[in-house]
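To whoever is on call:

I kicked off a structure prediction for a single chain this morning and the downstream step that reads the tokens threw a length-mismatch warning. I double-checked the sequence; it's 386 residues and nothing unusual in it as far as I can see. Pasting both halves so you can look.
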Amino acid sequence: MSTSSRSADPGPGPVAHGDAPLAGTEVTWADPARGLAFERWLATLEAHRLDAASLRPASADASFRRYLRIDGRGDGRGDGRGDGRAGGPNHSFVVMDAPPPQEDVRPFVHVAGLIERAGLHAPQVLACDEAQGFLLLADLGARPYLAELQAAVAGGDTRRVEALMRDAFAALVQWQLRVDASTLPPYDDALLRRELALFPEWCVGRERGIAWTESQRTAWQTSCDRLVASALAQPRVAVHRDYMPRNLMVCAPNPGILDFQDAVCGPISYDVASMLRDAFISWDEERELDWAVRYWQQARAAGLPVDADFGEFWRQLEWMGLQRHLKVLGIFCRLKHRDAKPAYSADLPRFFAYARRVAGRYREFNALLRLLDEVEGVQREVGYTF
């Protein structure tokens, strides 16, 4: 969910590279000079035998990045099954267009290397112009995890849902074991609080037009203190920061991992929470608990430092998820008001529901639940004061 390559508050992630092409088939450039720079860079990649005429949009992003797809010469238009390896049948590639100074491709390149060394599956960086923000990537194909999960749910295919989720959590355990977190930025107090601050600024103030009283601001600050303290008390591992179905691809080996440039060294429960309580697909709590237990068992067996008490791990996960949900509520409203991308606001009710469920379960967040009531316009029969 990135809004910029190294932003302190990543936003909704890209449409997966395998999604249907965007409206229209032509690639246009808002800045003609950048278009010319891209053509010059593309001409230097002769070793990859790229068919320049096949260039077309692959996906959009909530940030300034975009992704293009291009075929290898002699392989036709490609069928989305390519693996980006020159010489293979129907192979295609993905181009990342990440214009500076808004974007910086170096974190993506760095984390891609960490993932490759960890033995996990992510787009290989085949060519890079860091100064201009152009990358040529291996193509992980056209089977987004989110679409496959949604199709399996719609078709009542429980076994397929379970298989996909098991693969995702097995890969997450390996990510946490093998991706070197020591070279990643820290998910520290300042970053956690900057993320939380998005909620009152963009959701409360800008979206709902509410000005909190002093007592309400105090209640908010107390809730933030608890969430941050819980996050900082957890064991530290590499955190993808958007490990969710929209950023995974169905491929071999499964899954392929996308949109990892905002990875940090942070709380072990974070990616579990984001996978279970996703921006675009929700599960009943029985399933959430079952998958969380299975992850916890695998993590313990692998030697990861999860809490020995599952109940405590679940609390950590819920509180970590609450921090994320509040952040995302702010980001979705910011995308609407600042970036003219209103579509994300359609998912505000999903994240309010996530946040209310957790806030209502723990007495430490009674005051936060009352704040959420006001922001959502929920009227309760029992009165209260701050």
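Update from on-call: the warning came from a stale cache, not from the record. Cleared it. Sanity check on the structure: Residues 1-24, 75-89 have pLDDT under 50 and may be disordered.
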